[in-house]
Amino acid sequence: MKKSIKILIVIISLFFSLAALYYFGFYPNTKLKPMDSTIEFNEKDFVDKFLPKDFKLNLSELSLKSHTTLNDEELTDLCILAAKKDSNLNNYLDGLKIEIDGDSLILNANVKYNKIPFRTKFVFKPYAENNTIILKYQKGSIGFIPVSSEKIFSAIEDTDFIQVDKANDNIILNFSAIKYLDIKDLSVADNSITIDFEATLKFWDLIKK
């Protein structure tokens, strides 16, 4: 009888220990923006953010400059809209939130695996280089368990727009398909990302065509 009670106490203790480990270590305890949120996306206002604000014209070329700023809420909405277009990804996501901390971009996501919710966090450092935007992977975790860049990048497929540089832990956003457009700079401050674009149209190149 006493042995049965001891076994029962061990089982109950083990159950509560595992429950506490899951709750404090993995359970999504931060409120994120739900994937089924209604996002009021005004395409015209979004496009206006990228329209040139500065024009320069001379005999040889037309130069256009744009100074675009996106805050953390706008970045969150864009990520949710992008994720909704991927039915496979959308099936695993419950919520997303982008945070900006110093010069880092933090992606918080609540995911579900076998209907069990988990919290995840991934940190990137964004910067511009060679007409691309680079997201350098800093660290990531599922609950309190670290996730290597190798595991993250293995789930990302290269496209014309997104390439993975596993050797340098980089996700590269490539804009080379957009002719005459150059990304000059990217800065992170005040919970926003600011991107400087420049488009140069050389009249001689048009004549040659």
From TrEMBL:
Keywords: Membrane, Transmembrane, Transmembrane helix. The chain crosses the membrane at residues 7-27. This is DUF2140 family protein. It comes from Clostridium senegalense.
